[in-house]
Amino acid sequence: MVKFELGHLLLFVLILRIIGSASGGIEGVIKVNYKFSGTERTLSALKAHDEKRHLRLLAGVDLPIGGTGRPDSVGLYYAKIGIGTPSNDYYVQVDTGSDIMWVNCIGCDQCPRRGYHGLELAFYNRKDSLSGKLVSCGNQFCKDVNRGSVSGCYGNNSCYFSENYGDGSYSMGYFVEDVVQYDQVSGDLQTNSTNGTVIFGCGGTQSIDLRSSDDALDGVLGFGKSNSSMLSQLASSGKVKKMFAHCLDGVNGGGIFAIGNVVKPKVTMTALVPSQQHYNVNMTAVEVGYQLLNLSAEVFTNGVNKGVIIDSGTTLAYLPEVIYGPLVKKILSWQPDLRLRTVHDEYTCFEYSGSVDDGFPQVNFHFENSLSLRVRPHEYLFPFEDLFCIGWQNSGGLSRDKWNLTVFGDLVLSNKLVLYDLEKQAIGWTEYNCSSSIGLKDEITGSVHLVGAHSLSDASSLTAQMSLTFLLLVALLHYSLFNGQS
Questions:
Q1: What region holds the Peptidase A1 domain (predicted)?
Q2: 50, 95, 183, 442: which one is catalytic?
Q3: What is the DSSP letter of 298?
């Protein structure tokens, strides 16, 4: 998700009305669940998810991408966090493509009362929290997030926020500051509760797109790169290291989502592309069945969006037309007698009775610093009814930019530990069993604690069937000890 500049007077007036009604280390864990678990996922439903996802990623870019997800894949994750004093629980979408954290607030008459699977949604009320505060227009955070002064916003007036997305959806309201509760790791597979103060959006109105009961959650937890993200805020106060990792279990579901210094397993890293809004990395070659595709160097360097966007919220993998065509042609050349058919006017499918891993080539993507990403046939070919369909999607043909967009989602990221190091502006991955444990370093003692995937408590309002979960693990730094202060 990416924020647009607010430029319409009508929206500004609506925001003012919302504001007017509102005025009067150690390691840690946030439990995260997979939104689509326990439901029958169709190509159309996952296509709609990916389409909205990419439009949010590509705000301001004329590239409406179509696509769908594998019926057995992970597409969207949400976290259970506590906010306020006393703390109340909220279910928020974990989004690496946006920066602002926001939850729906009391008084929002356009917000749904129930979400998917009948989940009863919560509404934040600052007046019910002993630690809740309004954020004024004079606050430095307000100035930074709005890139300077905002017309009509000054002094002690409430600072408003507007998250507008490329698909036309939006959430608007005002900023508040409060304590966010999450679990800290106290030992191997052991946690205790901890908290940190975070500025986040208090949503007062939503577009129709965000009101759908099938998709509704309490809000969004942005894990983007900017200083306004929860990660950046906690890091600036010395609470966390500006690093996080995820490991999505494509076999059993769930996995691990971690913030902190992951030291086991070891991960090879490559530099993030500078001056990009998302987590982009430079690809250098594509290998199919141990043969490099004959692609020119400019294929990997041209285009508005530099490099490959790494995004666990996307289901499939989207490639520029200049890569997609040769890649699919090479894959299908291994079985020249296949009878291809098109599903839903855009998905290339076929009947095949043998083992896809024996009959089709593996694909390797190569990146700078000798980092590679291997994708086996059973990962890029997904079953649909009595067919197998190709998971690679063509991002060309729908854009004026012939170089198009490259996005790697769960199709290639599952069963891999992906590590984001924002302190060194690098990212990396390694193949891994995501149902096992990883090692997270305690920055105070230097010891390494084991953490692994867990399910949400059966006492939650979610059913056990819905609880294909993973942990969002946060490595906290004790500010005073880490800096040698009393």
A1: 77-430
A2: 95
A3: G
Cβ atoms of 311 and 409 within 8 Å: the answer is: yes
> Cα–Cα distances in Å, from 94 out to 56, 188, 406, 424?
14, 25, 21, 23
pLDDT, residue 152, reads 77
Distance CA 103, CA 80 (A): 12
311 among known catalytic residues: yes
- Selected catalytic residue, list 50, 167, 218, 311: 311
Evaluate whether 18 touches 205 at the Cβ level (below 8 Å). yes
User: How far apart, in whole angstroms, are the C-alpha atoms of residue 23 and residue 65?
Assistant: 40
Alpha carbon distance 341, 350 (integer Å): 6
Nearest to 109 by CA among 120, 128, 123: 123
CA distance 30 to 8: 37
Query: Where is 411: in which H helix or E strand?
Result: helix 410-413
Nearest residue to 434 (alpha-carbon basis) of 245, 244, 243, 256: 256
The pTM score is: 0.75
Token pair listed for 484: 């040698």
- Report the amino acid identity of residue 323: I
Cα(177)–Cα(153) distance, integer angstroms: 18
Contact residues for 254 (Cβ-Cβ < 8 A; gap 6+): 34, 434, 435, 453, 455, 468, 469, 470
Per DSSP bridges, beta strands 347-350 and 341-343 are: antiparallel
Cβ-Cβ contacts under 8 Å for 295 (sequence gap 6 or more): 285, 286, 322, 323, 326
| Nearest-angstrom CA–CA distance, 363 and 286 | 7
Q: What is the DSSP string of 179-200?
A: EEEEEEEEETTEEEEEEEEEEE
Instruction: For residue 307, give the nearest of 330, 276, 328 by alpha carbon.
Output: 276
Q: How many C-alpha atoms does 302 have within 13 Å on its Cβ side?
A: 13
How far is the C-alpha of 369 from the C-alpha of 421, rounded, in Å? 15
- 118-174 residue pLDDT tens: 778 899 999 999 999 999 998 999 988 887 767 778 888 899 888 764 345 667 889
Quick one: 216 exposed, middle or buried, by C-beta within 10 A (0-12, 13-18, 19+)?
A: buried
At 424, the amino acid letter reads K
Q: Does 95 qualify as catalytic in the annotation?
A: yes
Whole-angstrom distance, CA of residue 341 vs CA of residue 339: 7
Per-residue pLDDT tens for 333-368? 999 999 999 988 778 999 999 999 999 999 999 999
Residue 218 corresponds to which tokens in the numbers above? 């309490």
Helix (H) or strand (E) holding 218: none
Whether the predicted pLDDT of 471 surpasses 60: no
Tokens of 90: 């909220």
- Reduced DSSP (H G I as helix, E B as strand, rest coil) percent helix, strand, coil of the chain, to 5: 20, 35, 45
